[in-house]
Amino acid sequence: MGIYASLGISATGMSAQRLRMDTIASNLANADSTNGVGEAYRRKAVTMTAAPGGPGFALPRPTGSVSGEADLHGVAVTGIVEDNSPLRRIYEPGHPLADAEGYVTRPNVNAVTEMVDLVAAARSFQSNVAAFEATKNMARDALRIIQ
Fold this sequence. Notes:
This protein has 147 residues and is α+β, with helices and mostly antiparallel strands. It has 2 helices and 8 strands. It is elongated and about 75 Å long.
């Protein structure tokens, strides 16, 4: 197993968490966006899964692992999905986008939830950076030993 597999796994984690942070920023930016009568921006979330195996970014199974366990891989983004939770309806009869009952439809974005998700994504990104740096330092120290 080479050092490049570890670097690749950390890189996939950083890339996925960066996309997650971008999606959260989009949700926060559109927290008050309405698209018309009865319609509004829907919160989006990133879905991830273990990356498919390959020689470039796969670490072999640890010795003594149960037969059938998968090798260690990076992460792959499977998509950005819309949250189907109900949109908020706020009573504003004078608003130009109010329906016949006087309600304006607002996005299903909760700023507190988004900020918690943002902190979690940032911490995960930082963890991947630390793993990347540790691997890089091990490679540098190994090269220093053989000089």
